[in-house]
Write a structure and sequence with these properties.
The complex is a heterotrimer.
Chain A (H helix, E strand, L loop, with lengths): L4 E9 L2 E6 L2 E6 L11 E5 L2 E5 L4 H12 L1
Chain B lengths: L1 H11 L6 E7 H9 L10 E8 L1 H4 L2 H12 L4 E4 L13 H6 L3 E4 L3 H10 L5 E5 L6 H14 L4 E5 L5 H6 L6 E4 L3 H5 L2 H8 L4 E3 L4 H15 L6 E3 L11 H10 E8 L3 E10 L8 H4 L15 H5 L23 H4 L4 H8 L4
Parallel strand pairs in B: 1-2, 1-7, 3-4, 3-5, 5-6, 7-8, 8-9
Antiparallel strand pairs in B: 10-11
Helix pairs in contact in B: 1-11, 2-16, 6-7, 7-12
Chain C lengths: L13 H15 L19 E8 L5 E2 L2 E2 H14 L3 E13 L4 H18 L2 E10 L7 E11 L14 E5 L5 H9 L6 E2 L9 H15 L7 E5 L3 H13 L2 E5 L7 H10 L11 E7 L3 H9 L8 E7 L6 E4 L5 E3 L13
Parallel strand pairs in C: 4-5, 10-13
Antiparallel strand pairs in C: 1-6, 2-3, 4-6, 7-11, 7-12, 9-11, 10-12, 13-14
Classes of the chains: A alpha+beta, B alpha/beta, C alpha+beta.
């Protein structure tokens, strides 16, 4: 439904964020997120940053599997 | 890969009764194929593709409306790439383009707005499809257009919301993989509510380990004999979701009943721009006549979307209907189940 | 001389001579290129290879090169993949009235530079000018002739189970660079086309195989990946040789920026165009030696073994995924469209 791409915020300007996905850069709207800073990681979709990413999938899935056992 | 390996083992060792899991989201369908997960499943776990493909669930008449705007009203159609080759009742936007229509793929509705700003001589219409994740940028484009007093930009809406659709799908599966990015907007409250209705599922991410982990959680929890919900994508999805996105939708749109191809009308599952944005609603701006589209009678996209049949069970799958010559949206959309099954072959 | 191409320059008179002298002859200077009706050339010793290609890339200039460089590389590489040392090139230009002359100059300059690097002489040419709108900017057609190295026999039907599949560098850069320079999706990335002349690379690989095994026979397939990307070549070979190809998804080298662009647009790097990458099939015992050679050459620094040829799944390209799954690389086909949701 929603192809999203993780990207790093490199610059904030007037409610827009310049993001970098391993070297591919675009400007997207940051309106949906509060307090976005350069260095934050976000999920981008259709020209908008839709969520902050708080970590990588390794730690996340390790924790889930641990809780499951 | 530790978690992925553990999860894979739990899945492989499942020896309970038949477990039907529905991947609601079209991106999940494709990623599951791309990661080679289908082949890892034992025979008693069945993955069913659901209706989370906005292009697929949009009625054929929508394409007819877009073609009408392009050919009869001379509008420049800006759109996500997926929509270009979806068949309408008579023609697709690609065919319209061959007849001289202006059709421009864009990555974002905000790019469509920028195009309109830079081409004041063109009447630009953005084909606004998508679920809760994709709606905010469309609304932002309309809001900005109104602020600038733009006369040449509007959107043709077909956006949908998922909340009421889950109930319509309740009997299609034993558990659901909930859409990861829609959930960043809606938050998780809906899934707790569904759990109270006896519907189980997990919010799932998109990487190989995330998909495997989510499936392992379903396999384990389904054996506990009671409805469950777990957020398996906590690094991106919070319980709260995005209040500002929801506020934007509430301020600019009203919920309306909406037709989902194959499922029928789901109450309050669509949106319409509020009256003050009428100038930016392409249907009102150009007085688009009501279009009751008709699908090719051989098309069984509707049944596929509900999970009633697999793509291969459709008689025209791979025969009359291929990505090059699609009969229905499921075969041509980047998120379509038929497109995924066709691309990845029956062995994978 | 004019700042833009004029119809008079295509008429065959004084302005045509001026154009040829001040741009083409200036750069293509070599003993075989004369003002006569045809070049007079020594005949190659062994078997001769010959090929032709038309170039219409838009935009005509892009990061990493221009249409001129491409026109030489494309034809040189086709010859190289037959094991033929490129000897002579012809080039025919069709220019649009009004096209900037400095772009023509830069294209010709790049052609000369690339030809020199490839060791090939541009021996004949032709220039036509079409009216505005009758052609898009600048079209170039090159025809090339080369001398096949004795004992080399490569071909699409010669891949065998047990062959290593080697790609000489990261994939999809040229297609990505062109996409970005059209700036239709507001994405910025530092991606240069991989456009490069590859005879030096092919020759070094041939020599490595001969040194190791005593003959060229073990070099089963050498093919340059162009428009359809490495993925298309893999499917062609799998089909022609009736074998399966089993890839390791995380071994396929992809530039991170190309990966990012593909992620944004829903594209598969294996299906983006290349213009300076070879796909090589040789028995896996030779892989290490071939890789060592490739890593020491200018255009194959990140060459890698990406998979192997199998008996199972003939005609298919199967991918092993990092989580231990197996999936199919989807078959090539379809328009380049961004996928969104």
């Amino acid at each position: 439904m929603c192809v999203g791409l993780p990207a790093k915020v490199t610059e904030m300007k007037d409610g827009m964020a310049v993001v970098d996905a391993t070297g591919a850069k675009r400007t997207v709207t940051a309106e949906l997120l509060d307090d976005l800073q350069p260095g934050d990681y976000v999920m981008i979709h259709a020209g908008a940053a839709i969520a902050k990413i708080s970590g990588d999938d390794q730690d996340e899935t390790d924790e889930i599997m641990e809780a499951l056992q | 890969m530790k978690a992925a390996e553990q999860a894979a083992e739990i899945i492989r060792n499942y020896d309970g009764k038949k477990l039907r899991i529905m991947e609601v989201c079209g991106t999940h369908t494709h990623e599951i194929f791309r990661q080679g997960i289908r082949k890892m499943l034992p025979g008693n776990i069945q993955l069913i593709s659901g209706p989370g493909c906005p292009v697929c669930v949009t009625p054929v008449g929508y394409i007819d409306e877009a073609v009408y705007l392009a050919l009869e009203k001379g509008c420049t159609i800006t759109t996500f790439g997926d929509l270009v080759r979806v068949p309408g009742s008579e023609k697709s936007l690609a065919s319209a383009r061959a007849e001289g229509a202006k059709v421009k793929p864009v990555y974002s509705p905000l790019d469509a707005l920028e195009y309109a700003e830079n081409h004041p001589e063109e009447q630009v219409v953005f084909l606004s499809v998508g679920f809760e994740t994709t709606t905010p940028p469309s609304l932002m484009a309309v809001r900005q257009a109104k602020k600038e007093g733009l006369q040449n930009f509007s959107i043709l809406t077909a956006n949908k919301t998922m909340d009421n659709a889950y109930l319509a799908l309740k009997d299609s599966a034993d558990a659901f993989l909930y859409p990861g990015h829609v959930s960043t907007i809606t938050g998780t409250k809906i899934y707790y509510d569904l759990m109270k209705e006896g519907i189980s599922g997990v919010v799932t991410g998109f990487t190989g380990p995330e998909l495997l982990t989510a499936l392992a959680v379903i396999v384990k929890k389904s054996q506990e004999g009671k409805p469950f919900f777990m957020n398996c994508y906590p690094r991106v999805v919070t319980d709260e979701g995005s209040p500002s996105a929801r506020k934007l939708a509430a301020e600019m749109t009203d919920p309306i009943d909406s037709e989902w191809r194959g499922i029928g009308i789901i109450p309050k599952s669509g949106i319409q721009l509020k009256e003050e944005y009428a100038d930016y609603d392409a249907r009102k701006k150009y007085d688009v006549p009501e279009m009751q589209g008709h699908a090719n009678p051989a098309c069984r996209c509707g049944s596929v979307l509900k999970g009633e049949i697999t793509p291969q069970e459709c008689r025209v799958f791979g025969k009359g209907c291929t990505p090059e010559h699609p009969i229905g949206a499921c075969m041509v959309s980047g998120e379509g189940a038929c497109a995924a099954f066709y691309k990845y072959g029956r062995d994978f | 001389m004019e700042k833009t191409v004029t119809l008079a320059q295509g008429a065959g008179g004084k302005q045509t001579s001026e154009l040829i002298e001040q741009i083409f002859a200036k750069y293509f200077n070599n003993p075989y290129l004369t003002a006569d009706d045809a070049a007079v050339l020594p005949v190659p010793q062994g078997k001769m290879a010959m090929t032709t290609d038309g170039f219409i890339v838009s935009p005509s200039e892009f990061p990493g090169g221009n249409i001129g460089k491409l026109a030489v590389c494309g034809t040189v590489n086709d010859l190289s993949c037959m094991g033929a040392r490129p000897l002579y090139l012809t080039c025919s230009f069709v220019l649009e009235e009004g096209f900037p002359m400095d772009k023509v100059d830069r294209a010709a300059e790049a052609m000369a530079k690339t030809a020199k690097e490839a060791g090939v002489h541009i021996v004949a040419g032709d220039t036509k000018v079409a009216g505005k709108g009758q052609v898009d900017g600048m079209f170039i057609t090159t025809t090339g002739v080369g001398e096949i190295t004795e004992g080399v026999k490569t071909g699409g039907a010669l891949a065998r189970p047990g062959d290593a599949v080697i790609v000489t560098g990261d994939v999809g850069r040229h297609g990505c660079a062109i996409l970005l320079s059209r700036n239709e999706f507001q994405i910025e990335a530092d991606v240069k086309s991989d456009c490069a002349p590859l005879w030096g690379t092919v020759k070094a690989v041939l020599d490595t195989v001969k040194d190791k095994t005593g003959s060229y026979k073990d070099l089963h397939v050498v093919r340059d990946a162009t428009r359809g990307g490495v993925g298309t070549v893999l499917y062609e070979i799998a089909g022609q040789s009736s074998v399966g190809i089993h890839l390791q998804q995380d071994q396929v080298p992809v530039d991170p920026a190309v990966s990012g662009v593909c992620g944004m647009l829903g594209l598969e790097p294996l299906y983006l165009a290349n213009e300076g990458r070879l796909v090589i099939f040789t028995p896996k015992e030779n892989a290490d030696a071939v890789l060592e050679t490739l890593h020491g050459l200018p255009y194959s620094g990140n060459a890698a073994v990406i998979g192997e040829v199998t008996e199972e799944n003939p005609g298919k390209v199967v991918m092993h995924t990092p989580i231990g799954g197996e999936t199919l690389l989807p078959q090539p086909g379809g328009e380049l469209l961004p996928r969104i949701c």
